Amino acid sequence: MSGIYDLTSSHIYGLIYRVVDNENGATRVLKAVYRRLWEQRHEFERKSLEPLDWLRATAHRYAMDYKTAKSIICDTPAISQKKSDGASQQQKLDLSEEEKMLLKHAYLETESLADLSARFNNSEERIAGKLELINQKIKRFGQ
Fold first, then answer.
1. Per-position b or e across 68-96, b if 16+ CB within 10 A of its CB
2. How far is it, in rounded angstroms, from Cα 119 to Cα 98?
3. Are the C-beta atoms of residues 110 and 32 closer than 8 Å to each other?
4. Within 10 Å of residue 42's Cβ, how many Cβ atoms?
5. Where are the beta strands (DSSP E) in the chain?
6. pLDDT digits (tens, 9 = 90+) for 89-143
7. What's the CA angle centered on 132, arms 128 and 134, to 5 degrees?
8. 3 state SS of 96
9. From CA 46, how far away is CA 41, in angstroms rounded?
10. What number of other Cβ atoms are within 10 A of residue 58's Cβ?
11. What is the SS3 assignment for 132?
12. Is the confidence at residue 86, as pLDDT, over 80?
C-alpha cells in the first residue's frame, strides 16, 4: 500500500486541490481518501479493482463533499428563487446546529461512522440515517 501512496499521492492531491482550493482542506481530504483505500484494501484484491481509477473517483467525491459541507457550515448559502409572479425570493438552507456539527465532523474532519457514533451518542445506523436526511435536504435545496 505504501507503494501506491508514493506513486499516486501527488496526482491525487492535485485533483483534490483543484476542487477544494486550499492546502489544509486538500490535505484532510487526501488523508481520508487513503484511509478509505486502506480500509477497503481487501476489496481490491478480491474484485481486481484498478486502484488509480478508484482513487480518482473517490478523491473527487470526497473533495466535493468537503467543499459542499464547508460552504454549508461556514456560509449557510442562500439562493434566490423566482416565485410564480416573477418576484425573487431569498431562501436559506435550514440546518440545525446538530446537523451542522454532524456535517463538520463527517466531511470536514472525515471521522468514521464509529467515531461519529461515539461523539453523538447514537448508533452507526442512526448516524448514517441522519447523514442521508441531511443529504436529501441539501439536494432539495439545490433544486
1. bbbebbeeeeeeeeeeeeeeeeeeebebe
2. 11
3. yes
4. 8
5. 78-82, 88-92
6. 556 677 888 888 888 888 777 777 888 889 999 998 898 899 888 878 877 776 5
7. 115
8. coil
9. 9
10. 18
11. helix
12. no
pLDDT range class, residue 27, cuts 50, 70, 90: very high
pTM confidence score: 0.55
Q: Based on the number of CB atoms within 10 Å of its own CB, is 29 exposed (0-12), middle (13-18) or buried (19 or more)?
A: buried
Cell of residue 115, nine digits: 467515531
**Where do we find the cell 506513486?**
7
Whats the size of the chain, residue-wise?
143
Name the band, by pLDDT with cuts 50, 70 and 90, for residue 77.
Answer: very low
User: What is the grid cell recorded at 110?
Assistant: 472525515
Angle 15-18-23 (CA atoms, 0-180°, nearest 5)? 95
Q: What is the CA radius of gyration of the chain?
A: 18
Cell of 114: 464509529
Cell numbers describing residue 124: 452507526
DSSP letter at 121 equals: T
User: Which has the closest alpha carbon to 135: 92, 103, 109, 90?
Assistant: 103
CA distance 29 to 16: 7
